[in-house]
Amino acid sequence: MQDGIWILAGLGALIILALSVYAGTLLARLKRQTALQAEMEEAAIKKRNDKIIESVDVIAFAALKDQCDLSEAAIRLYMIMDHLQGEKRIEFDSRYPALFELYEAVKDTPRGGARKTLKKNERMRLDFDRAKHEARLEQAIKAELAEILAFTGGRHIPDHILTH
């Protein structure tokens, strides 16, 4: 009878040992898989951020060189930079207060087809308001555009923009 107990105890110990080894291999696989998933996510964020930064470079440079309205640049930069992730994530309103102020002032102004439906005097009034905000904030915004290019490295500015 005692021999049977020892045999069962030994068999139980072997089963526990085998299950422990199996659990250990599963944990190791899970750790590798989690690390790989984190690397893939990090790579995807970097790729997305690079695409966003490419657009930011072009818009900031164009606005700095007066090739697009400051209002349009403020709207586009705010909307695009809001999608930066990870270490590139910024608080746009506190980091670029003049651009954010202009964005807040013009964000609800009709654009495109909606603008065409407005009466001429309403369009002129909106243009005048926009121009007042742009003129008041221009110097601060130009400084912030230069900061944005420093932040992004300005490395994605296409050659055709540099030559104009």
Which residues form runs of ≥5 with pLDDT under 50?
Answer: none
Count of the domains: 1
Distance between the termini: 97 Å
Q: How much strand content do the residues show?
A: under 5%
Number of strands: 0
- Kindly state the percentage of residues in helix: over 70%
Radius of gyration: 29 Å
Which helices and strands appear, and what pairs or packs with what?
Blueprint: H1 2-64, H2 70-81, H3 92-95, H4 97-106, H5 113-116, H6 120-152, H7 159-162
Question: How would you describe this structure to a colleague?
Answer:
It is a single chain. The chain has one domain (2-162). Helix content is 79%, strand content 0%. It has 7 helices and no strands. The chain has helices at 2-64, 70-81, 92-95, 97-106, 113-116, 120-152, 159-162. Helix 1 (2-64) packs antiparallel against helix 2 and helix 1 packs across helix 6. The N and C termini lie far apart (97 Å).
Features:
79% helix; mainly alpha; 164 residues
Summarize the structure.
The chain is an all-alpha fold and 164 residues long. Helices cover 79% and strands 0% of the residues. The radius of gyration is 29 Å and the shape is rod-shaped.
